[in-house]
Design a protein that fits this description.
The complex is a heterodimer of chains A (221) and B (431).
Chain A lengths: L3 H54 L5 H28 L6 H24 L6 E7 L12 H14 L3 E7 L5 H9 L7 E4 L3 E4 L4 H7 L9
Parallel strand pairs in A: 1-2
Antiparallel strand pairs in A: 1-3, 3-4
Helix pairs in contact in A: 1-2, 1-3, 2-3
Chain B lengths: L1 H24 L2 H25 L13 E7 L6 H9 L8 E6 L6 H5 L6 E4 L6 H11 L4 E5 L3 E3 L3 H6 L7 E10 L5 H23 L10 E5 H6 L10 H11 L3 E12 L5 H21 L10 H40 L24 H22 L10 H8 L2 H18 L6
Parallel strand pairs in B: 1-2, 1-4, 2-3, 6-8
Antiparallel strand pairs in B: 4-7, 5-8, 6-7
Helix pairs in contact in B: 1-11, 1-14, 2-7, 2-11, 2-12, 7-12, 7-13, 10-14, 11-14
Classes of the chains: A alpha+beta (221), B alpha/beta (431).
Chain lengths: 221, 431
């Protein structure tokens, strides 16, 4: 007769393996969804970039095209950023999130450059805010104020339709972000750069940020 | 004395710090996975033990002589009904009923003095439950003695279902399914399901493995010799029903459990009285753990020593660790909420957003373990309720069952933490 303990441990093991398998399948599904969405975003941005380059060879005004493309892409980028963060926190087994996040950071940076160009070259009434936060910090022990700052910036984005936030991890593993970080002298999070001019190291209140930008309606719609 | 208290508090702080550090240093899901694995495996082993157990009670080969002791203190509201139920219990031979009125200050004595067929002993000074029980034990001359509390109402077949277990000469005590009688408010309704699980599934499983470490106060039938072998109940113990069971196990008596009959007992109706009771129970558990540490991991005591008793402590310690871990990983959000509340920051970033997130793919991984644990506990509860004349959950009971399966463990674990703290600090033990 099989011992009660052997049967119990076997049953427990089956239940645990079933749970782990469910988690593994969920991880695979999340990775697959994100990979597809990041690929779509990459193609769209690449498409825009080449189109703009093509227009510049013809000496044609690219502002109108850039405006139209950016509107589409920025909404998707925000959604994807939220999804990546949510999925990364839910992830248990997959290591692919870092690769996905890295690709996202590059693509988001390209979007940021387009925004910069919209404001600086095309004269559009848009504001861009770079937000440096701590990456890989789910318990926020490195950057206890980052979540509060993110919430303030979300409110800013909601209140001012012509303002877009570009979140970059200051402790990133991408050289590109490190260069931008060093350019603004950022060594810890949170840090906020408004329209490439005003740099706030440490937490900054909503009222301060609102005073520094010209809040308006979304000019891209 | 203060030095001992200070050392105890320091040990408690060190425990909290270590628990918090474990959840900060390791990924929280690793800690959740380890604790879930342990809880689930323990439940699976007990479930298999129940599968292997004979749920039917043995038919009595004979009906030994029997005394029923009813310790009473300020039981004026319940004792008459309790004695009525005790007298109505079926048993082929006459049994004695001895009520021990432990210097009640209410009308307990006046209410019972004229009831025929019972012997009443009155203490002039309150001596405590265990001492009262020992007083009765001294004059018991029957083979069996049952303890039934004065706020407990046994079913008619309670004796008939239990005495058959004494066919086995090694059996020193038999426990029964205990359920709340007064389920008026939400706390009592939730306790009903806790009692089903604890006194149904868990007790039957551990008794079938030979590892019962408690003979519940509301009703247990003892072999008189077994009680005398352990010198009765320990008057200095705040959970004398656990102490006596461990002592009986230590000297070699076996303890069985019948889930085919039930007794109803009063349960706390306020959070204050609930926590007071639970802190007493769990402090008693720690206290008896120290007193009977020789049982722990001792192969001489079989399943009790090697698995059931040690696991009961491991699960409690792990529960406390997990509670502290949950508080730790949410502490930042909590403190942010406090800072927002007192106006230090203007934005409150503390939220339980994930609970309302409609995208299941973004739910945290420990939700899978939570769901699995809920399913297992739900099944155990369903099984336990079946012991009560095949009772099935009713639709109106669903909120209380869900509360029991989810948030109630925080109540229990909070009581563990408080008990642990008081025991380490050396606070006065009160029954």
């Amino acid at each position: 007769m099989v011992s009660t303990y052997v049967k119990g441990i076997a049953l427990g093991a089956v239940l645990l393996i079933a749970s782990m398998s469910a988690l593994w399948i969920l991880d695979q599904q999340r990775t697959s969804i994100l990979s597809k969405e990041i690929q779509d975003m990459t193609w769209e941005i690449e498409d825009s970039r080449l189109y703009l380059e093509y227009l510049s060879t013809l000496n044609e005004d690219s502002c109108a095209v850039m405006k139209a493309r950016v509107v589409q892409q920025v909404g998707k980028s925000d959604e994807l950023a939220k999804k990546i963060d949510a999925y990364k926190n839910a992830n248990m087994f997959s290591e692919e999130y870092y690769a996905i996040k890295k690709t996202f950071i590059y693509k988001n940076f390209e979007l940021f450059l387009n925004f910069k160009s919209l404001r600086d070259d095309c004269g559009e009434n848009v504001n861009y805010v770079i937000y440096f936060y701590a990456e890989n910090d789910p318990d926020q022990s490195i950057c206890p104020d980052c979540a509060v700052q993110a919430d303030i910036l979300n409110t800013l984005g909601n209140n001012c339709e012509n303002t877009w936030i570009f979140a970059l991890p200051y402790n990133s593993y991408t050289d590109l972000v490190n260069v931008v970080r060093d350019q603004y002298g950022v060594t810890s999070g949170p840090a906020v750069v408004v329209n490439g001019e005003s740099v706030h190291r440490g937490m900054v209140e909503l009222s301060t940020l609102e005073a520094e930008i010209t809040c308006g309606e979304n000019p891209l719609e | 004395m203060w030095l001992r208290s200070a050392a105890g508090v320091l040990v408690f702080i060190a425990f909290v710090a270590l628990s918090a550090a474990a959840f900060t240093y390791f990924e929280p899901y690793i800690m959740f996975s380890i604790s879930s694995a342990l809880f689930i495996t323990q439940a699976a082993i007990f479930l298999m033990a129940l599968e292997d157990a004979d749920l039917k009670d043995p038919k009595p080969k004979r009906y030994p002589s029997l005394t029923i002791m009813v310790p009473a203190y300020n039981a004026g509201e319940t004792i008459v009904e309790s004695i009525k139920k005790i007298k109505a219990m079926e048993y082929p031979r006459k049994f004695k009923i001895i009520v021990m009125d432990d210097a009640s200050t209410d009308d307990t004595y006046d209410k019972i003095k004229d009831i025929p067929g019972i012997k009443i002993i009155r203490n002039k000074k309150n001596r405590g439950k265990a001492a009262s029980q020992n007083q009765v034990l001294k004059i018991v001359d029957t083979e069996l003695v049952a303890n039934i509390d004065s706020d407990t109402f046994p079913r008619k077949d309670a004796l008939m279902k239990t005495v058959g277990h004494f066919n086995d000469p090694k059996v020193g005590a038999v426990t029964v399914l205990i359920l709340p009688t007064n389920t008026k408010n939400w706390l009592q309704k939730v306790q009903l399901f806790e009692y089903y699980n604890a006194f149904g599934f868990w007790h039957k499983s551990i008794s079938s493995l030979g590892g019962m470490y408690v003979t519940p106060g509301p009703m247990t039938v003892y072999k008189t010799q077994a009680l005398k072998d352990v010198d009765g109940f320990d008057p200095g113990n705040i959970t004398e029903d656990m102490e006596v069971a461990l002592h009986m196990q230590k000297v070699g008596w076996d303890i069985k459990c019948s889930v085919n009959t039930k007794v109803l007992t009063e349960v706390p109706d306020t959070l204050k009285s609930y926590f007071r009771q639970r802190i007493r129970w769990y402090r008693g558990k720690f206290l008896n753990g120290v007193k009977y540490k020789g049982l722990l991991f001792n192969p001489r005591h079989g399943n009790l020593g090697l698995f059931i008793y040690p696991m009961s402590f491991i699960v409690e310690i792990l529960s406390m660790t997990v509670l502290i871990g949950i508080l730790t990983i949410n502490a930042d959000g909590f403190f942010r909420a406090v800072r927002h509340f007192i106006g230090v920051v203007t934005h409150n970033a503390f939220s339980l957003e994930f609970l309302f997130n409609l995208d299941p793919l973004s739910w945290p991984p420990y939700l899978v373990f939570l769901v699995l644990t809920l399913l297992i506990w739900g099944y155990l509860l369903y099984t336990s309720m079946g012991f009560d004349s095949n009772r099935r959950p009713r639709l109106g009971e669903l909120p209380y069952i869900l509360f029991y399966l989810t948030f109630y463990s925080f109540f229990i674990t909070f009581a563990y933490v408080m008990s642990f703290f008081h025991e380490l600090k050396g606070s006065e033990r009160v029954w």
